Every structure is written in C-alpha cells, then in structure tokens.
Amino acid sequence: MSKLAIITGADGGMGTEITRAVAQAGYHVIMLCYTLFKGEERKNQLILETGNKEIEVRQIDLSSMASVTNVADDLLGRGKHIDLLMNNAGTMSTSGLITTEDGLEYTVAVNYVAPFLLTLKLLPLMGKGTRIVNMVSCTYAIGRITPEFFTRGKRGGFWRIPVYSNTKLALWLFTRELSERLKAEGITVNAADPGIVSTNIIRMDMWFDPLTDILFRPCIRTPKQGAATAVSLLLDERWKGITGRMFASCKPRKVKDKFMNHPQAKQLWADTKAYLEKLKLEEPIG
C-alpha cells in the first residue's frame, strides 16, 4: 500500500506544488480543500501530470472546528497510517475583524487553532518516521500572544498584518512544543518559512494595490519556489530525525533563543486545549 500524505490548502498556489511533489514521490495524497470543486479540478490536473491516481479530495472549513473534527474523525475511521501531515493552509483577513462560529478571530482559527486540533486528532494514526510540517512565516518574529489572541488577535483595533504575525508565532510555538512531546515516539515536527510568495494571500485591498501587482509581485517567489522548503522537509532524507527546527530556503534557519525557548509556549498550549475543551471537542493528548 502507498504511504499516506495529508495536505491542507492543497488547492492553493503552494498547496498544489506540494501536492504535485508528494504525488510524484508515489504517496497516496488526501487534499484537504476549502472548495470541493476547485480541489477536484486540481486533483484531475495533478493525476494527469504525475500519473498518480491515488489522489483524493476532502472538503474542510478550517474556520470551523466542527468541520476539522468531522474530517479528522473520518480519517481516524479509515485507520490508515499517516506518513506526512502538511499544515499548509493559511489566510490573512482583509475584511477587518471576523468572528467564527466558535468565537475565534477568523485568522487565528484558520492559521493556528485548526492545525493544532487537526494534528492532535490525527496523532493516533502516526508513528515512528511520520513527518509533520507547519507552514510559518518570517513575520513570526513580530508576533505577540496577548490575552486577546483567540478572539481579537491583538489589543486595540484590528490590523491584519500583526494578527497574521501573531498566528504564525503561535504556530511556531506549537511546532516547538509538539516536537518535544513527540520526540520519544520518532515523529518529527518542523516549520517551513516559504519567504514572500506570489499567492492570493498577497493582496492589500488598498489604493496602492495596482502598484503592488505591477512593481512588487514580479520580484517575489513563485508558488513552486515558496513550496520548495516544505517539500524538502517532507521528502528529503537529509532531514530524517531532525525535529523542532525552522527551515527556510531548504536549510535550517538559526532562530533566536527567545523563540526557541519561548516563555509562553506551554501556556499557549494549555490555553488552546482549554478553548477546544470549552467547545466540547475531544482532543486526544494533554
């Protein structure tokens, strides 16, 4: 049987490139996509390009923890061992503060709480050799975890770039904490920083947008270039056994000690777990 890979946001720019590379490597790939129709289109395209027919699509709304739970429960019901989990999906709100059905700020739900929940729910299907990769961003370094993190993203008025940065810091802290908890089981957990990539997330919705596209977009990385670090972490034998690290440009990145041993990492884990428990969602590890 083919090894199994789960990829979120698999119908996006970088998600498609990651899916293509993993499919070409012979994995059975489950694409977790927000839009089923778009996901099916990409799946059919990738089957033709790679010759790998073991690609399937599942719809998931990462802003809804009930949707995340339903998909995870379905995968648990199949019982197939997961070799790769790529938490690739991400968003940056362009419409101000949006509150999800779970009372979460939308960006926080999609970028951090959903991958936290999905990963922990799927852990019973993982074991020695499984690789978990989380897509972070260089903006983690300006992120802050404040009491308003879950419901507003930041103190004061809503501004999407700080809120986005906060979620990427949170995802990095999750990467670090989970890597320590799973080290003895031989499951690796690492973070990929793709750099600034020309995807739909780069859209400012301001007066200078036309100038952004004309002057800035041609100078940044293509989705394939942005996906390269994540692909390397998922497939390259060089990184077998490496865990709890951040990678950029397909190599380990030096991260300041205050982010490697962040004082809020354990508290954020506990707070996230408590929030999920308040929603009465089962979560398999403490």
UniProtKB/TrEMBL annotation:
Gene3D superfamilies: NAD(P)-binding Rossmann-like Domain (3.40.50.720). It comes from the Bacteria. Keywords: Oxidoreductase. GO terms for molecular function: oxidoreductase activity. InterPro entries: NAD(P)-bd_dom_sf, SDR_fam. Belongs to the short-chain dehydrogenases/reductases (SDR) family. This is SDR family NAD(P)-dependent oxidoreductase.
